From TrEMBL:
Amino-acid biosynthesis among keywords: no
Keyword list, A-Z: Flavoprotein, FMN, Oxidoreductase
One Pfam assignment: FMN_red
Domain of life from the UniProt record: Bacteria
Taxon lineage: Bacteria, Bacillati, Actinomycetota, Actinomycetes, Kitasatosporales
Protein name per UniProt: NADPH-dependent FMN reductase
NCBIfam families per the UniProt record, alphabetical: FMN_reduc_SsuE
GO molecular function: FMN reductase (NADPH) activity
EC number(s) per entry: 1.5.1.38
Domain named NADPH-dependent FMN reductase-like: residues: 3-144
InterPro entries for the chain: Flavoprotein-like_sf, FMN_Rdtase-like_dom, NAD(P)H-dep_FMN_reductase, NADPH-dep_FMN_reduc_SsuE
Amino acid sequence: MATILSVSGSPSATSRTERLLRHLDHRLTAQGHKVTALDVRTLPADALLGADFRDPAIVEATALFERAEGVVIGTPVYKAAYSGLLKSLLDLLPQHALDGKIVLPLATGGTTAHVLAIDYALRPVLSSMGAVHILPGWFTLDKDITVDDDGTLSVAPDAAEGLVQVTDRFSAALGGRTTLLAAAG
Ligand SMILES: Cc1cc2nc3c(=O)[nH]c(=O)nc-3n(C[C@H](O)[C@H](O)[C@H](O)COP(=O)(O)O)c2cc1C
């Protein structure tokens, strides 16, 4: 069992990225991990924009990174890269905040033209922060994620299969149980 921090970098109050991550959190929990969710949008904007390293919420977020063995980083694609909100938090963390950690990068976006944003934009940043192992990530099209009125999330079958694969690979890298669970859709 590993300690996992699951970070959503979307500023949206109705974020598909965030919903998707929370859905995957359940899968990781079922595989024996202790998962903590962190939605960057809930952190104080003045601390993020004013680079206030000493704000208690930023200190606590930094401690969550320190304690985690595995980190899921989820972001919407904005202007062909990751969100500015996510970057505002990463910029406040110590340079080697991901030292020795296993990282799973995930993105959602509106067009497959930016399916490689994880690799050309996010991965180098995570690498510069010391991540020991950045697993292959997964890009999910926003139209493939549906949230019903009751909050139930569904993912189109092909996307769901890819998400299950990368999530289970992440879990296995962290020593999670190799339980056979239903697809993430
Ligand atoms: C300001 C803005 C910029 C965006 N830029 C892109 C982009 O460059 N490429 C892309 O594929 N999608 C882009 N999108 C679409 C979002 O990435 C997509 O809808 C994503 O799933 C939103 O995630 P969220 O609901 O978690 O915020 C953009 C959306 C917004 C609001």
